């Protein structure tokens, strides 16, 4: 049986949340670039350029992307032979 301290889960969720706020997925970044290239409206082109600039600055400076607000959903799978130690799983994720 494998034992995993819930503190490791807290740390993993923390790193994932930070990464999601600093790094725009490459497919989303590419879609914005393609949209900008195909956009006819000067205002639309400018806005799409600003979104790309914001994503670049967020990644370079480790600052949150100004993109979306919402609630994080955590999906996890735990095998049968895993025992969590040191606390409650839901509390570890919420922390």
Please provide a written account of the structure.
With 95 residues, the chain is mainly α. The mean pLDDT is 91. 59% of the residues lie in helices and 8% in strands. The protein is built from four helices and two strands. The protein has a two-stranded parallel ribbon. The two termini are 26 Å apart.
Low-confidence stretches: none
Q: What is the percent of helical residues?
A: 55-70%
Shape: elongated
Largest sheet: 2 strands, parallel
Mean pLDDT: 91
First and last CA, distance: 26 Å
Strand content: 5-15%
Please count the helical segments.
4
- The SSE order reads EHHHEH
Q: Over the alpha carbons, how many angstroms does the gyration radius reach?
A: 19 Å
How many beta-strand runs? Answer: 2
Strand arrangement, major sheet: 1-2
Q: Structural class, judged by helices and strands?
A: mainly alpha
Task: State the gist of this model.
The protein is mainly alpha-helical.
List strands and helices in order, with pairings:
Blueprint: E1 2-5, H1 6-22, H2 26-38, H3 42-61, E2 82-85, H4 89-94
Parallel strand pairs: 1-2
Question: What are the salient characteristics of this protein?
Answer:
2 strands, mainly alpha, 95 residues, single chain
């Amino acid at each position: 049986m494998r034992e995993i301290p819930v503190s490791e889960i807290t740390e993993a969720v923390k790193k994932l949340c930070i990464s999601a706020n600093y790094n725009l997925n490459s497919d989303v970044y590419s879609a914005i670039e393609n949209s900008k290239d195909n956009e006819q409206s000067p205002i639309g082109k400018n806005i799409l350029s600003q979104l790309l600039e914001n994503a670049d600055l967020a990644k370079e400076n480790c600052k949150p992307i100004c993109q979306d607000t919402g609630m994080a959903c955590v999906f996890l799978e735990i095998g049968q032979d895993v025992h969590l130690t040191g606390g409650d799983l839901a509390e570890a994720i919420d922390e």
